[in-house]
Amino acid sequence: MTEVSPKWQSEVINGVYPLRRYLSGSDHSAIFLTECKAQDVATAAIKIVPAERALPEAQLSHWITAAGLSHPHLIRLFDAGRCQLGGRQFLFVVMEHAEQTLSQVLPHRPLTPDEAQEMLLPALDALAFLHGRNLVQGGLKPTNFLVVNDQLKLASDTVRPAGEPRASIAKASLYHPPEAKNGRLSPAGDIWGLGVTVVEALTQCLPAWPDERSETACLPTTLPLAFVDTVQRCLSHDPARRPTATDLQAQFKRTPDASVVSVPQAVVREAPAPVAPAQESPKERLLVPTIVAVAVLVLLVAVWAGLRLFQSHPGTRQSTSSTVQAPAQQTAAAAAATAQNPETPLPAPPEVSAPSAGAKPVQSKPAPPRSVSGKSNQPAQPLADASPSVVHAQIPNVPRSARHTIRGHIKVAVLVIVDRSGNVIDALLENPGPSWYFARQAREAARKWKFAPADEQDSRQWLLRFDFNRKGATGHATPRS
Prior knowledge:
With 481 residues, the protein is of the alpha+beta class. It has four domains: 1-97, Phosphorylase Kinase, domain 1, CATH 3.30.200; 100-266, Transferase(Phosphotransferase), domain 1, CATH 1.10.510.10; 286-340; 390-480, TolA/TonB C-terminal domain. It has helices spanning 56-67, 102-105, 113-131, 187-203, 225-234, 245-254, 282-312, 317-340, 400-403, 436-446; strands spanning 12-13, 17-18, 22-25, 30-36, 41-50, 77-85, 88-96, 100-101, 135-136, 145-148, 151-154, 160-161, 390-392, 410-419, 424-431, 450-451, 459-469, 472-480. The strands form six sheets. It has a five-stranded antiparallel β-sheet with strand order 3-4-5-7-6. A hairpin with a 3-residue loop joins β1 and β2 (17-18). α3 packs antiparallel against α4 (187-203). The longest helix has 31 residues, at 282-312. The protein is flat, with a radius of gyration of 32 Å. The two termini are 40 Å apart.
């Protein structure tokens, strides 16, 4: 189907669903962008599979069952049925359109431990929901972890009743548990697929086994240690030894940071006995007060000299006071450092030279404007080269751990709708880039931009371009006509 599917663009399924843009496909399915006016959804996705390779009645029944489910972390299904294309019979299912999938992110970079935990919590919530209704997701892998409106969701077109024989049109892969070859679908099979996906998400590599009889998987050395024990339990060859979705959900909810998830017992070492604090010698006890006294004396001398200059040259009050304060602060800092390390010599106070009689007062100049970046904790300011219409530019404050996963640059474009008063009333991802994490950061920041009021227009559009790299983030705004 991969070669034929793109040629179907502009076809209309059953006179209702036009095949717009070809999104993706494989040898057993094709996905297009479409419209779903009956559900008041402007943009949806439609998946088409050959009817001869599936059990049509069973497949349609599964899709109808999944369409009746309602959970915030499951993709919604709107419609399903039969159709004909190019003289062949197909089945189709119409669903929510996802902005991005995990499989689109991983070729560019692995997830950080924080991102992995952020992905796991909603995924486990959806799995616990399905398993509690005797259903299974049936196909956990990176392509089935999707993002819709900044929210992670699992694909639901693969949902099946637990206990049903595996009769998928897709070939068996590493994401399927060992028992799936001759067994039935079970919640434990979802946990296996979850374990494989977590390894791939964090390392961009798949786990391996020396042979089919090996119980313990060989995990990539780049897998964060905090996930090793959890992944090994998920990849147990014995389904009964795998944790349930509820168990994992409780585990990750107890740990606000993924770095404190339980680790293998083999790597846990006994903590060393506490060391008693070192006792200060009599010489140190006498030396520290002496150094502090000297520092205070030097500080007083510097302040006195500054006051003399202040009184002698009132016309240069601003420049002289700033000249005096800097040495005084430097002297105090040096004294504090010396108090901590008695062997460090105390520097002599710098000389304060009075201005000559003919010198003109030094006028302070405002600091030149600088471009906005995510490197500091200061409130974001408008870009130096931005349009005067930009009143406030909010730049994403990305943690260092997330920035260090970037290779090169990640570019995200956000289209914002601005009302007459200059407030952003909506933000749409024009180009989400390779990472839903950075796309979400950019979109949240875009909502906080502020523009100059415009009485002539009810609303305007601006395109905000964000650039993320290891040093921080930048943003730039251009008007969209």
